[in-house]
Design brief:
- With about 375 residues, the chain is mainly alpha-helical.
- The chain is built from 14 helices and no strands.
Amino acid sequence: MRSSLNSADFRNIFFYISTFYFSFFSIIGVYIIYMPKVLENIGYSSEEIGIIFAMSPMVRFLLPFFFLKHLRLTKNIYISALGLALFAAVLFYFTIHNFYLFLLSNIILGISFALILPYAETFALEHLGKEKYGKSRLFGSVGFIIVALLLAKFMNESINALHFLFVTILFTVIFGYKLSFYEKENTADRNNNKNSFSLLKHWRLWINIFLMQVSFGAFYNFFTIYETAHGVDIETVSYLWTFGVVCEIVMLYYQGPLLKKNLYNIIKWSTFTAIFRWLLLYFFPDSVLIAYISQSLHAITFALYYSAAIAYLFQIYENKKLAQQFFGGISFGLGGFAGSILAGIFYGEYLFLYAAGVAFIAWLILIPITPATSKDHLA
């Protein structure tokens, strides 16, 4: 339920959370699209690059467990995490030529991200409500696209990637800090750490969240390689990536009415759509038209699924920030880590058949739960 705000405060919060999302996911664009190439250019081996980029997912997975008993994600910890992100951005300049020091810098950045995003997601749901959330979150996708298209023009100098990374982190810190002005921790929030938090109580949902991200490992890590191996030129592949994010943006803008419905069913049928999406790529690997149809389903399998999942967790758990921490840790953390490794093992003709099989298990695990027992009627 959205907190009580006057119209001026609501407009300010919408602006700050939208600019935060824009800046934060611009960081992600720089980090995952360009930083691996920068490291390769300065002499890092593929094994070293793999280790460095495995650190952030593992940190996201492990960190929430420290908050189960004695810690909680307070405003002060959130502000400290913002400062930690800026510190890591500065460290990148001085450590990038040393593997071990740069690994440490990435761990520090991973810790900060594992705290910042769950806090911001909870803040957005509390103050904007699930119906307005998507219209704010879509600015993150816009930021990602702009970075993907813009930074390529400046990559003749590797240092430019570090400059972009620093600037995007700086703006994330500025707008993220602005959000803290509107956060008031009440008694109920302070007592959240005393409430039991159980992953086992909703174990089917958590397994689904994990497996969905595992299935996406094939897409995130090998879609470009898979399509070009089947005769699709790299320029067309770049258009396919952009088209998928555009579809994501459209869904985020218009998804509000859908999120008023049964969230559990949305999660279930978004998962089922992922099965269909991966099977399209398996059966028609050399069809550009089918690839575009598959990419259009990113609106459902990522945007709608993501929004429904975090809104449902916000609804069923009293400790809402910890629920968002575990969502990031189990999905993009452990799921992203396992998905990358398994996609590498299964890469080949049957890659997306394997991905469809994982999504099928993720869908099947939800079937025994009925809408009547999902607590979604409490929304």
